[in-house]
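[scheduler] slot 2 assigned
[scheduler] job type: sequence-to-structure, two independent chains
[scheduler] chain ordering preserved from manifest
[runner] begin chain α
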Amino acid sequence: MKRRDLIKFGGLTLARAGAVRFPLLAQDGMAMSPAAQAPLTQADYTLRIAPVTVELSPDRILSTIGYNGTAPGPVLRMKEGKQVTVDVINDTDTPELVHWHGMLIPSAVDGAEEEGSPFVPPHGRSRIQLTPSPAGSRWYHTHVMAMDDLHKSTYTGQFGFVYVDGGNDPGQYDQEHFLALRDWEPFFTGPGTMADEDDETHTGPLLEKPAVLNTAQAGLEVSSTTYSINDKALGFGEPIRVREGQRLLLHFLNASAIENRRVALAGHKMKVIALDGNPVPTPQSLDSIFLGVGERIDVVVEMNNPGIWVLGATEPMVRQAGLGVIVEYAGQHRQPLWVDPPKSSWDYTIFGTVASSSPAPEQTIDMIFEKIPSGMGKFNLWLVNGKPYPHDREFVLQQGTRYRLVMRNRTDDAHPMHMHRHLWELAEINGKKTAGVIKDTVVIPYYGRAMVDFTATQPGLTLFHCHIQQHMDYGFKALFRTA
């Protein structure tokens, strides 16, 4: 059965372009004990975890858990290097964590149980202090495990943008929008019942495909047929209203718990200027962009083609089921138009340079990713170097040492791999070498291979995992320890 067989199409819809911003108000790396009473001093930011409703459309209203009464939560704008205090108030019945994805911060405030970050207790509160770094587009989200509960963790509405201002943005654009790609109402499906028509990583050289495949019956997977950009499905809410000649800065985030995604703005090219919030050495103007789960891409668009256009998923069923927003030029009165972009393969290396200015790696860590079909009963089991989590003292780093991480994907899925509290420099993907592309999340292609370099600069524990929630829940994670 194809995804289209499960989707009932509604009318053409549109999505709200931005998210509510927190005002930037006037101590590092510490989590303060939960307190029953509010602290005497006011925090720079407050995040309240509580039930919310999300009105994707008048006839599609969802109940979930979010931040500050919305999902996504507010855009938090911070200044690089300026210490901030965040109060997290948990108005739910379960312990919670808030992870600061892409930040170079101590493990105590990173928001990962595996690293020793303390939970925010049910109906309790915690205060954390952190120094935002590096500059660029980051995000925050829950980091509890979900297992077989599709009403927990990243399946909920607990996510939002953080933008860290480094003071070097010339501001040469007329509008700025934060756009989170999202799926809702997840459900379990049998293996192969939801064909992913947007998975382009199968076209690679398949360098890591095993000679003998495991043909055992695969376990249940998670899917969705309800989508949006931010909190509105395509056709509801306000369009992005523009004038000819304007320049738009668009911050994209794939906030899915389930799928990698390709998007395009019909009738326009998008100039990619940053990946995961980090400026790229070689910006590129493209017809579409591809984001793994957890990835961010910043683009600049020249508004030079008057009309009313659809910005959305290139996969028709996903776009028509809600993942899109209307871009409307002033003075235009016509039906919104979608035009399929040319077919292309996503290639990180086009944004890079020939040679790296970073030190050469001193040591290499080899990692093999495998899937055991139905290895956890109803669900698949995921292995790193032959074992599921935990990998007790298997990956021990020396402070200040430069490492090359070789990730070999021997599974039939494309995995968005994320390492907390560190940044990677992409060195090679499927045999293509590059340098200068700095990321915190990299999609390892279907039966493919990627190499990244990083320096162990963060003392303590660092979590490494696939950002697809179900994969992480069932073994696909490991702890690095910096001695």
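[runner] end chain α
[runner] begin chain β
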Amino acid sequence: MYPEMLFKIASASFIGIDAYLVDVEVDISLGMPGFITVGLPDAAVRESKERVKAALKNCGYMFPSRKITINLAPADRRKEGSAFDLPISLGLLAHLDLFPVEKLKDYLFLGELALDGRLKPGKGILSSTILAKKKGFKGIVIPGENEKEGALVQGLDIYGMENLVQVVRMLNSAEDVLPCRYSLNELLSRPCYEVDFQEIRGQQHSKRALEVAAAGSHNVLLIGPPGAGKTMLARRLSTILPPMTFDEIIDVTRVYSVSGLLKENGVVGERPFRSPHHTVSEAGLIGGGLIPKPGEVSLAHHGVLFLDELPEFRRRVLEDLRQPVEEGRVTVSRSSMSVTFPSSFMLVSAMNPCEDAYRGLSSSDSGCTDSQRRNYYSKISGPLLDRIDIQIEVPKVNFLDMTSRFEGENSAEIRNRVTKARKRQLKRFKGRRIYCNARMGTREVKKYCTVDGEGKELLEMAVNRLGFSARAYTRVLKVARTIADLSGEDGISSVHVSEAIQYRMLDKYF
């Protein structure tokens, strides 16, 4: 007869993209055989009884015929998912004295069990691994398919196990079962882009504007007729953005891991490009659900969020973009919790010049009038448009450009210039929580965006004649600062200001 005992195994659950420690307490006592799980479990956790029972049997272990109580502490937070299968099964096996019980306290355990005892890949492994290191565990035991994701965290033993039998063997003789070993070079492969700026014919003005946008992480609006290349330009923007730093890779991978969108290599090494359809819901774009999940704005973190046919999006959905665009994060509130997701992205949007999508395709005489443009632009709120730094018109491509054999610069050449400009900004803002010109506050604009006499005259003309608002004035200064950085110059001249003003085409319509 096995004694009545209580076992405690460490595991993890999530709030947003952050993991928190969950103690899986397994109490096995005399009484009517039964199995009950408490601690606010969801349906997937409650169903773990059947998975664990079948897995133990198919691995050759006995399922205790006792009264079994599973408590997931803290009990006041709702637990979801199937990753508690492994710690629950280990609590039951500890009762059978199959391994030294004291070994359990050294590790954090996560994993869903298949009915044959295999460990199936799960979500949020990277956040759980970061938690295990923070809490001082010796290592973490996870499914084998998730080991590359976990290996991003250095200084912690990562055990990627294939099945329950391997986990028991590891607990019996950890010195014989080695943790996985990956160098960062193996995990962080170089980005391989499928598209390139060299494929775009003509549109030199638009390509220059996107280079400026990439250098300062400025938001962009592309306006032009169908077939002008707006979507083609937007999809190539991520190829000229500077490579992600290690911290950015961790941030983005955590979001994708919690969302269950990681690919086989387990690491997001390229800047994300997200392009939701205009029918997307508020929860789909911003994030939401009973237990809030990341939306498109968070999946585009440190990358590009592209909204094609901007006026076709519901106005209420677009209004929700104002917080993430301005603050780089979004807060989703529910009655039981409030979750903040990271959402520092470049907003790139595209639209036609007016309601009739095919106006402006032929001669300028049949193009859109100013009144038609104003009516169409009014579908988008002024406050949102005001937060878009660069607004440019993308004209139709002429025949000579379409048939030309001349190949422009490739993405790598443009990316080199953008990276140099970003390095200047990082050096300028060292010690501050700012990584690009677009994120400058009022204090930084006043300090770093001083212009010469001719530049001030141009800005005065823009305010008085073009009707620039105070916000538009500040945006022009930020863009001018980026143009100067691309030129490698410390000061902002009238040339930089003049180019920045050209990128504010919508101000004359509002």
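[runner] end chain β
[qc] chain β: Residues 411-428 form the longest helix (18 residues).
[scheduler] slot 2 released
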